[in-house]
Specification:
With 486 residues, the protein is α/β, with parallel strands linked by helices. The protein has one domain: Alpha-Beta Complex (Amidase signature (AS) enzymes), CATH 3.90.1300.10. It is built from 17 helices and eleven strands. An eleven-stranded mixed β-sheet has the order 1-3-2-4-6-5-10-11-9-7-8, sandwiched between helices. Helix 4 links the parallel strand 2 and strand 3. The two termini are 17 Å apart.
Length: 486
């Protein structure tokens, strides 16, 4: 059911907020020992919020749009008084004294916090296997990963443990797990949503966005969390349009660009390619025009990203020195020794790897050869998109080259893991909005995701295109087992 459908039931008294919360807490209790989507459950808080909402409704008060809707929040978004760990030993006891802007906006809109979800440590990974607290499993197949880094949020939603969730996306960390778990995941335009209170990985790439079971739900959540924020200097002050009012408008005349380089990519599964092209044909039947588009630098995105993102991570994670907060290893020798031991013990191997890569890329004698060069290629990628959007309105690609892979499959091959974000990274480098929606299933019954990329701040058209496809194709109901229930 969508948020709008739940809201109607709540308004009519067919279900109470407390009953809705208890239902989802029961589901978490039944499933999450195996799934491990959550790191913390805020049951008492959730029930208290629900009781307040039910009391306000019975008194005839006008309630905000998300009143009573249970949410799961990725554990790199600060929640005041609720432990926020980034799935790292470094922050395993950190309790923020402040609330992130996006979660504050959710609570002000009546949303209820069920708990904090698992992720790859400091959002560095594509499988939710680098978490200090253990891996999350894919609810479609417990032998497979849910994607990452926001795998906990995607898995919790797919398993029915929440109605909606928030994640963050630095190189595909919302869209790729959305694809692997058969849900909808939206990365807004860079700056459309405040990053204040999001624990930083790569500041020029990070963006907060929603997971939901429908495009309309993503639009409704974006409506709440988008908008300027004086606490985030990168947050845009442009007026927030109504994302819901045009969802039903037809796609007649819409120009959809199929990026040639994406469909010629080595490693792209045949089943994924066929499913996404079939989805493109569905858009054509709705009145859209399909146009082949070349973005010559698209494939350079992954090499560019793995210079820029680790460089920014190296700078952002330098603050974890074992002095002010975070994990501290004791040393009697020196402050330098204590800091070194704290970072070695506090960070996992993947985080250490990226810090080392970034520190090297920024070091004297190499910064021009690596970091500066990567920023120049980033500009070229952005220009490719600008040229493409002079010819088309929306770009279409697969979300991931494959469906969910086996847990541990890339444990000893970091490069293979990085390549799973090959098709999502360029949108982050260019700061563009992008969405992943289910478009089919492979022979094993695993979901396949289609990615739509919009122009800067063109979420309205992006959401309308995704919504019209979703309503026409009805992919999830077409699955031989119906909507997944673990």
């Amino acid at each position: 059911m969508t948020i709008a459908e739940w809201r109607k039931q709540l308004q009519l008294g067919q279900v109470s907020a407390r009953e809705l919360v208890d239902e989802h807490l029961a589901r978490i209790k039944a499933l999450d020992k195996k799934l491990h989507a959550f790191l913390a459950i805020t049951a008492d808080r959730a029930r208290g919020q629900a009781d307040q909402i039910d009391k306000a409704r019975s008194s005839g008060d006008t309630l905000p749009p998300l009143a009573g809707i249970p949410f799961a929040i990725k554990d790199n978004l600060c929640t005041k008084g609720v432990r926020t760990t980034c799935s790292s030993r470094m922050l395993r006891e950190f309790v923020p004294p402040y609330e992130s802007t996006v979660t504050e906006r959710l609570w002000n809109s009546g949303a209820i916090l069920l708990g904090k979800t698992n992720l790859d440590e400091f959002a560095m990974g594509s499988s939710t296997e680098t978490s200090f607290f253990g891996s999350t499993l894919n609810p479609w197949d417990a032998t497979r990963v849910p994607g990452g880094s926001s795998g906990g949020s995607a898995a919790a939603l797919a398993a029915g443990e929440c109605i909606a969730a928030l994640g963050s996306d630095t190189g595909g960390s919302i869209r790729q797990p959305a694809s692997f778990c058969g849900v909808v995941g939206l990365k807004p335009t860079y700056g459309r949503v405040s990053r204040w209170g999001l624990i930083a990985f790569a500041s020029s790439l990070d963006q907060v966005g929603p997971f939901a079971s429908s495009v309309a739900d993503c639009a409704e959540i974006l409506q709440v969390i988008a908008g300027g924020d004086s606490r985030d200097s990168t947050c845009l002050n442009d007026p927030v349009p109504n994302y819901l009012e045009t969802l039903g408008e037809p796609l007649t005349g819409l120009r959809v660009g199929l990026i040639t380089e994406c469909f010629e990519q080595e490693g792209l599964s045949t089943q994924v390619k066929e499913s996404v092209l079939l989805a493109a044909s569905q858009l054509e039947s709705l009145g859209a025009e399909l146009i082949e588009i070349r973005c010559p630098r698209f494939a350079d995105g992954i090499a560019t990203y793995y210079v820029i993102a680790p460089s920014e991570a190296s700078a952002n994670l330098a603050r974890y020195d074992g002095v002010k907060y975070g994990h501290r290893s004791e040393s009697k020798d020196s402050l330098t020794e204590m800091t070194s031991l704290s970072r070695a013990d506090g960070f996992g191997s993947e985080v250490q790897r990226r810090i080392l890569i970034g520190t090297y890329a920024l070091s004297a004698g190499y910064v021009d050869a690596y970091y500066k060069k990567a920023q120049q290629v980033r500009t070229l990628i952005k220009r490719d998109f600008e040229n493409a959007f002079q010819k088309v309105d929306i770009l279409l690609t697969p979300t991931s080259p494959t469906t969910a892979f086996k847990a541990g499959a890339h444990k000893d091959d970091p490069l293979a893991m990085y390549l799973s974000d090959l098709l999502t990274i360029p949108a982050n480098l260019a700061g563009l909005p992008a969405i992943s929606i289910p478009c089919g299933f492979d022979d094993l019954g695993l979901p396949i995701g289609m990615q739509l990329i919009g122009n800067v701040l063109d979420e309205v058209r992006l959401l309308r295109t995704a919504h019209q496809y979703e309503q026409s194709a009805k992919v999830m109901s077409a699955h031989p087992k119906g909507q997944f229930i673990p």
